[in-house]
Structure formats: structure tokens, C-alpha cells
Predict the 3D structure of the following.
Amino acid sequence: MTNPPSLTDTVLEAVKSLYPEALADKAWDNTGRGQTQYSSGTVLLTNDLTAAVVDEALNEGAKVIICYHPVIFRPLKSITASDPMQAQLLRLIAAGVSVYCPHTAVDAASGGLNDWLCDLLLDGEAAASKTVVEPIKGSLPEGHEGCGYGRAVEFSNALSFPDLLKRFSKGIGGHRYMMVALPTSYKKDISAIPPISKAAVCAGSGSSVLRSTDAQILVTGEMSHHDALRHASLGQIVVTVFHSNSERQYLTQRMKPMLEEALKDSPHANTRVVVSTADSDPFDVIDVESL
């Protein structure tokens, strides 16, 4: 009798079916996995791998961690516990926990992060059009033809700048504060901003992907100082919320239910999938006057 596939193999097969590795930006991105095999256990989803997340994973009995951002970003010649990130990897290795990091495959995929960001701005309305900002060249897996990085969406009904910000805030978890680069003509009076008919989105850092878009408003996690100045000088508005705040809620709203559905007909259909509550953006906004 053939043994059923391990939990690790089953989960990774499901994740790769949702976010094929062929979509990842191999020029700089690192996707990868560990080799530990288990017959059952919990799967933990997280945006980043920190000491707090590792504590949570071990307490939850997680056997597989799907970590959106790569844990190893640059080549390593050795692993040492004196490095904070490597120390967390050593803890997971000792506990036999596998880690897989799909990153830009999630950004580019159909139904992935950037499609979700568009949906937040649409708030249930149909788009007049939605296009990929930076398509991936070459043949792509079935169901992901024409995919790539970033999205541009034209609204069937133009919406006000405040309404767009409120939609975005609600979708990413109710963040009250956003960093916005405005053209000079709007700095003293945002009511002068005309209705928004076209927006472009890019999860995480949008500087390179959104550089050539003609959208009125660019929505991303972060953008470099000089790129923000450039877009403002072109009459465009840049909205940022800190890098991972543009990504994190996707795990709860989309990745978790999609993974549970993908596992439904597998030998591990009853696998518990949880989203980290310890994971958070490294930046907080502090009101100095309240100190």
C-alpha cells in the first residue's frame, strides 16, 4: 500500500497550485522550503518570521509555516545563532518545522495580493477595466496567463479621494493614518482633488513596478522619497501605509480560505490553518504630543 503524502508535501502542493513558483521574480526573490515530513499538524500563515512569530508557531504546534516574505534574502555561507533571523531558523530546524516563502508569486498570481488590493478599492463594484502593470514574459501556468506585478483599475463610477482612502483603510484592517504624497496644488485643499477614475496598486514596495503608470493615484506599502517626489510632480497622488500593512490582511481574507479550500479533497482535509496574531509591521506611528 502506498503511503499518503505527508502534510508538508500536501500543503506545499496546494500553495504552489494557488501561487505557482513560475510567477515569482527569480531575478531577486527567494522561494523555498524545508524537508521535514509530518502526517498531521497545524499550518501557520505569517507575513514575516520574527521571534514572536516563532514562539507562536511552536506554541500552536505548527509543523508548516507559510511565510510570505523570504526568510533568507541573501546567500548565507554559514548559520549562526548570533544573527537574530538565523537564530529563529535554527529554532525551527531544531523543532522540525518546515517553512515555505511564496512572496512575489503571491503578488503576481490571479487571485493574489494585487488583485485583492484592487478589490478593496472597488468595494464590491464592478471595474470598468483591470490590467496588469508589469506582465510576466513567456508562458505561464494555466489559470495565470497574462499575470504579473501590480494592477491598474479603472472605476465604473469615479469616486472621491476621501472615499478611496476609506475603502483602502477598511480593507487593510482599519488603519487610521496613511502617508500621502500630494501634488503641490492639492496640499492646502484636498477637496480640490478631482474624482478618481483610475488607480494603480502594488503590494509592498511599488517604486519600480508603478514607475510608468498613468493612474491618478498610486496605492502601495512604501515608495522611495525621490520616486514619490517624481510622481507628485507629474500630478499623481501616492498613498502608502508602511510596507507590510499593504499585505498582511490578505492572509486572513484570502490566503487562509483559499488554502483550506485547496486542502478540502486531500488526505489532510482537516488540517488546521491559522494566521499569526504575533506578526505585525515593524513601524508604529507615535503621537509625540501624547508622550
About this structure: The first helix runs from residue 7 to 18.
